Amino acid sequence: MSTTTATATTKWWSGGRSPFNVEYGKIMMWYFLMSDAFTFGALLISYGTTRFATQGWPDPNHVFNSFPGLGSGYPLLFVSLMTFILILSSVTMVLAVQAGQNMNKRAVVSNLIFTIIGGLAFLGCQAWEWTHLHHEGAWWGRNPFLNADGTQSTTNFTNFFFTITGFHGFHVFSGVVINIIMLIMTLNNTFEKRGHYLMIEKAGLYWHFVDLVWVFVFTCFYLV
Amino acid sequence: MQDLRVLDDAHAKAARREVYKVTIILSILTIVELALGYSMVNMSEQSFSRHLIKGIILILMLAKAFYIVAYFMHLKHELRNMIMTIVLPLGLFVWFIIAFLADGNSFRELRNKYAPYDQESNIPVKQNQHSEQEKGTIELKKAVE
Fold it and tell me: Count of A–B CB contacts within 8 Å?
């Protein structure tokens, strides 16, 4: 903290240093995530527009009310579990990044393993939910659920649900793959030899972004 | 050198405490969101209180997004120029959301006014189409009572 206040009067734009005080790869990760945010934003806004343009919509409390082993009648329970899994895996990722800043290889490895387990658990939950909905007859182009007012629903609901949660799940999958690569590189002492763990920070940004998108997807599909 | 080490440790500890604090805030926000979502279970679709709760949930969602970006992604501790290069372009979303949702709404109203025969709600409900969902709904209502 004290270093940033001391350099507050530094001329950041007179050359010789990064004017954003951020490493090149990290800035580029931020810009990639911004473009990804626009992609997800476009998907979610088209969902909102279509929902506003459609007469009725199924009530999420009645569509998503099953829990493995318990049957139906538990609204929001399963998706709460998924949400907490993703938040906790985001927390262990921050701890891995901080451990990297302290050059603590052991803590980086253990926190990365927790993050990977969290990501895989989330993917498992999503696989179960998709399978369950598919058994109920829901898929792209097929919507067995009625509107909240009991009228026939359009396929807009299932089309958007599977497209957007599928695109998010694909991001979670890529994040898990990236984290596994980070784990292998850490175990091979790649970062130890390099003298810094900046790569973990970039992977961390991506992983937090996946968690961030889930906050929006979760709210738009399951709560509102 | 010794002093620097101690300072670093204190810094690391403060950073970790911040992570735990944000974790607790995010958990509380999520639990409140879920409680609000659950409270809507038997409310009628177009009631004012349901719209109000939906609005509160959306505000809580933005608060969660702020905590993730600011603290987990560390954006709050970056230089102001860096923050602005990320946040300002995303400000376009304010316009996108207002414009597109208004457009969707106006499309529905125009269709209801000029082409009422083309409504998707005119599709007849097929019998026994989704007994599973009905069963779940009944069980759910029992559980709530």
Answer: 183
Between B77 and A113, the more confident residue is A113
Residues of A in contact with B21 (CB under 8 A): none
Using the predicted structure, report yes or no on whether residue B123 has a pLDDT greater than 70: no
Question: Is A55 an 8 Å CB contact of chain B?
Answer: yes
DSSP secondary structure letters along A87-137: HHHHHHHHHHHHHHHTT-HHHHHHHHHHHHHHHHHHHHHHHHHHHHHHHTT
Chain A residues touching B69 at Cβ < 8 A: 208, 212
Predicted-complex ipTM score = 0.89
Q: In Å, how far is A39's CA from the nearest CA of chain B?
A: 12
Q: Do the beta carbons of residue A142 and residue A152 sit within 8 Å? A: no
- Cα distance between residue B141 and residue B8, in whole Å: 56
Q: B19-39: per-residue pLDDT in tens?
A: 999 999 999 999 999 999 988
* Residue of A149, A177, A198 lying closest to A22 (CA atoms): A198
Rounded CA separation A119/A137 (Å): 27
pLDDT surpassing 60 at residue B86: yes
B93 touches chain A (CB under 8 A): yes
Report the residue of chain B nearest A207, measured CA to CA. B73
Residues 6+ apart with CB under 8 A from A92: A111, A112, A114, A115, A118
Average pLDDT for chain A = 92
Look at B30 and A76 and tell me if their CB atoms are within 8 Å. no
> DSSP readout, B62-85?
HHHHHHIIIIIS-GGGS-HHHHHH
Q: Which residues of A touch B130 (CB under 8 A)?
A: 136-137, 144-146
Closest CA to A179 of A118, A223, A133: A118
* pLDDT for the residue B1: 37
Q: Report the distance separating Cα B108 and Cα B105, nearest Å.
A: 5
Nearest C-alpha of chain A: how many angstroms from B46? 10
Q: Which residue of B has its CA nearest to A101?
A: B12
Question: Mean pLDDT of all residues in chain B?
Answer: 82
The Cα–Cα gap between B41 and A77 comes to 13
Please tell me which of the candidates A61, A63, A91 has its beta carbon nearest to residue B23.
A91
